[in-house]
Amino acid sequence: VLGVVVLGIVSFVLLMFISAPYGKHLRPGWGPTINARVLWIIMEAPSPISFAVVYFMSDNAFKPVPLLLLGLYMLHYLYRSFIYPFRMTGGHKQEPIITGVLAFAFNCANGSTNAFAITELAPHLLSTSWFFDPRFLIGIVVFFAGYAINQHSDSILLSLRKPGETGYKIPYGGFYRFVSSPNYLGEIIEWIGFAFAAWTVPAWVFAWFTATNLVPRSFSNHRWYREHFSDYPKNRRAIIPFIL
Ligand code: NDP
Questions:
Q1: pTM of this prediction exceeds 0.70
Q2: Closest CA to ligand 1's atom 15
């Protein structure tokens, strides 16, 4: 868990200066490449797999609160690992393997530590009274708000290209009215909600890492849109509506 905290600091500093070379920021010179769809599955699948393996090793695996948290985690990650890669409109691209290395390491650590904490290290999750705790109730609302923003924003992006098109367009609608990367905003909100609902150290570290990774990426995307589209909406921010 401490390793993920440090990884978050390192990736935040690096990503503020160097945009990760995939998607809009894809460029040569980053070593061997692989099909983007395949890379995505290889780097994301360790998250639900490691979570499930560690989770079901516990005697507490069938307690109601841990089961619900398992459900939230899997709702996001089964989609992200095994369905989203087949919806990506840039899935045919060749992308540098290096871009998946950090995500792979993070996902192995994150899935297993979160499952272990939820089932073995958090006595408050073993009683159904947690269902009535304000932290849990706030967390559930925040999680689903973030989930909805993330899904809706990704759907807008994925509908921009007609079959056969490969270029980029300005996304409009939903939270794109306010920020350039609402999909990232939704993802950060989602995992903050999960952290409230689980109230464990690994869950908060997960939210922290998501933010340290996606906030700098949103700055790169914002800059990229402004450089490539002279008619890009002037009042749109990078990641936090009206502020940042
Ligand atoms: P992007 O916004 O870079 O791209 C998403 C998809 O939309 C790609 O297929 C991309 O194609 C396409 N696309 C993006 N912008 C445009 C545009 N302007 N016009 C047309 N098509 C476009 O998202 P990411 O790949 O970075 O992330 C995807 C999801 O994964 C997000 O929901 C994000 O929150 C999540 N994620 C989570 C992370 C975490 O730390 N938890 C880390 C990274 C991502 P192309 O590939 O050609 O650019």
A1: yes
A2: 157
